[in-house]
Amino acid sequence: MQATINVKNLDKVLKSFRTISKDMKPELRQVIQGGAQLIRGEAVKSIQNGPKSGKVYQRYNPTRTHKASAPGEAPASDTGNLVRNIRVTQKSQDIVTVESRASYSKFLEYGTSKMQARPFLFPAFKMSQGKIMMATFNRVKAFIQKVAKWVIIVLICKKQYLIN
After folding, report:
1. Torsion angle, CA of 67/70/74/75, rounded to 10 degrees?
2. What is the dihedral of CA 54, 56, 57, 58, to 10 degrees?
3. Scanning 28, 81, 135, 164, which has the fewest C-beta atoms within 10 Å of its C-beta?
4. In the chain, at which residue ranges do the beta strands (DSSP E only) sit?
5. Which helix (H) or strand (E) holds 128?
């Protein structure tokens, strides 16, 4: 027994799959933008709510007690300036940055000769990385499934295939 499958217009089917990369760009740009917002959110959360086990200081103007972060912990929020200065910026269609514009950000992130690092951006990136990769995978998968269904429907509806 023998089964032969002849597919007509295979070049049209393959062409539709080649256009996926072009058609996916808006989908992936949304993932990139959402990923950057996720990183920003994780950084803010670590500064405002993360565990702090450093020294306790008395601050003035306004009077308050401030518990600092220990080395290796995200910085402890005091005035809110650091959080206010964490921004997501669209540099181009395909590049989005998460940056802190506070003048002392790099000292907190990397430390100095007199202070150990209190990183907040790189840990936020690491925490978000898996979610961003999964969101990318899910968008690509859904898009390919949609295109594949469309191609199959076209093949069936137009009777573009023959089975002998």
Report:
1. 50
2. 160
3. 164
4. 5-7, 56-59, 64-67, 86-90, 96-100, 161-163
5. helix 121-157
Could you tell me the sign of the dihedral formed by the alpha carbons of 9, 10, 11, 17, in that order?
Answer: positive
- The answer to whether 50 and 73 have CB atoms below 8 angstroms apart is yes
Could you read off the pLDDT of 27-69 as tens digits, one per residue? 889 999 999 999 999 999 999 998 899 999 998 988 989 899 9
CA distances from 78 to 50, 56, 69, 101, 123 (A): 13, 12, 11, 16, 20
How many Cβ atoms sit within 10 Å of the Cβ of residue 28?
A: 16
Q: Are 47 and 118 in contact (CB under 8 A)?
A: no
Write the burial class of residue 85 (CB in 10 Å: 0-12 exposed, 13-18 middle, 19+ buried): middle
pTM of the model: 0.78
Q: Is the peptide bond before 62 cis (omega within 30 degrees of 0)?
A: yes
Residue 17, SS3?
helix
